[in-house]
Each structure stands twice: as C-alpha cells, then as structure tokens.
Amino acid sequence: MKITRQKHAKKYMSFYKYNFGFREPFQVLLDGTFCQAALRNKIQIRDQLPGYLAGATQLCTTRCVLKELESLGKELYGAKLIAQRFQVRNCSHFKDPVSGSACLLSMIEEGNPHHYFVATQDQDLATKVKKKPGVPLLFIIQNTMVLDKPSPKSLAFVQAMQANQLVPEHQKQSIEHLKEEQGLVKEPENRRKRKRAGGPNPLSCLKKNKKVQETQQPSAAKKKRKRKRNRAKSEAKAVSVQLSVKA
User: Fold this and answer.
1) Would you say 58 and 26 are in contact if contact means Cβ atoms under 8 Å apart?
2) pLDDT of the residue at 227
3) In Å, how far are 3, 27, 141, 168 from 171, measured between CA atoms?
C-alpha cells in the first residue's frame, strides 16, 4: 500500500512540475485542521513530508491561521504550537484577520503564482481549492499524508494548453530549460551560399601585365668565355708556316 501511495505521489508531482512549474523547495500552506490531525495521528510533518514529496519543503502558515487557533482555546492548543514552528507568510489581512480557510484561499488567487500546496482537513476548503487549477491538495487519511490527484479543473487547464488555447510563460521556460539540459538547443549556423553557374572569372579575362624585369648591373668580374679553335685550321696554318720557313 505504501509503495502504491508513493508511486501515485511521484506521478502527481511530475504533473505539477511539468505543467505548472513547481520547483523545490515545495511551499506547503497548512491550516489548523491539518496540524490537529497530524498531532492526533502522531505524524511528524517536518520529517515525513519531504520524503513523501521526494523533495525539500517549506512549511508555511499565515497570521490569520494562528489567530484562529488562538481564539479556539485549549482544544487546539497543541495544533497552535505546531503551526507556530512554521514560516509565517504575509497576507492582506494584517489589520482585519479573517478565517483560516478564507486566508489560505486568498494566498492562491490569480493562478497560484507562488506555487503553494494547501494542506487541510476542512472539506469545504478542499472543495474550493479543487476549483482552482494548479493547486496541489494534501490531507491525512488513516495515519498517513496523501497528495490528492489533480482536480478536473487542473486537467482541463492542461488540455487547453495542449490545444494551444493557453500558453503560460513558465511552461515555455521549463521546456527551454529541459532542452538546454539535454543539449537539444542548437546554435544557428550560417547557411552556405550555393555557387551559381556563371561565365568565366572576369579577372582571368584581363590582359596580363608584363613584368618589368629589373636591369641587372653587369658584374665587375665577368668570366671570359674561352673560344674553342678549330683543330683542322690550326694544323693547316702550322703546315703553311713550316713550308714558308723551309722555302
């Protein structure tokens, strides 16, 4: 039973994370009825809730809830001591406190921008919470804390998003963030220009300029070229010289 409950909680948490942008630490607003039920059933909220939601949590309440518990006297004295340990979130009823249920409803108005969970045993409050999309509901049954399945309002809201009728900004950011983590975001590449078939290169049609050869100065010491004398002529000349000598 515990494994099934944990499985369902994991599934519901994935739903709220992906579709409504819930992130750790999860902020849980608790009223006096939930604190009283936890005390009666010996549930350690601070120790057990993070394990159940599989993430860090911040337990919160409001001044109106504390005022309500104080006004109820000794019967809810233990619940008041528990609630006093939680973070007190500012509400709009500082001068004129309202009931705990009315105060918690005001904290999740306008689309629940702070991503609050609501933990309550008040059936009337739970019914009103379910009419607001994107608000997870926690309650206690048989000595265990239970995360309620997403309400029909939340499911209808998600279906409308998928039909592109509603596009919340946080979902765009979540998708982009997941793409970056998975390395799916590609940098824009410069498109290579296709070479068009054309005529010859105009530069190749230009007349080539003749290179002006630098006049080299004659070197001071030039090697004299030796002439090869014709051997036959030299021999004939030698014979004629000899004949002239004999004569």
Assistant:
1) yes
2) 57
3) 30, 19, 32, 6
CATH number of the domain at 169, please.
3.40.50.1010
216 in any annotated domain: no
On whether the CB atoms of residues 29 and 119 are closer than 8 A, the answer is yes
Angle, helices 63-71/32-40, rounded to nearest 10 degrees = 60
Domain, as residue range, for 64: 2-177
**Which position has the higher pLDDT, 246 or 149?**
149
Q: Say yes or no to pLDDT of 228 above 90.
A: no
pLDDT tens-digit series, residues 45-95: 999 999 999 999 999 999 999 999 999 988 899 999 999 999 999 998 888
Residues in the chain, total = 247
**Rounded CA gap, 107 and 236, in Å?**
135
Give residue-wise pLDDT tens across range 106-135: 999 989 999 999 999 999 999 999 999 999
61 pairs with which residues across the strands?
88
pLDDT at residue 244 in the model: 46
Q: What is the pTM of this model?
A: 0.66
Count of the separate structural domains present in the chain: 1
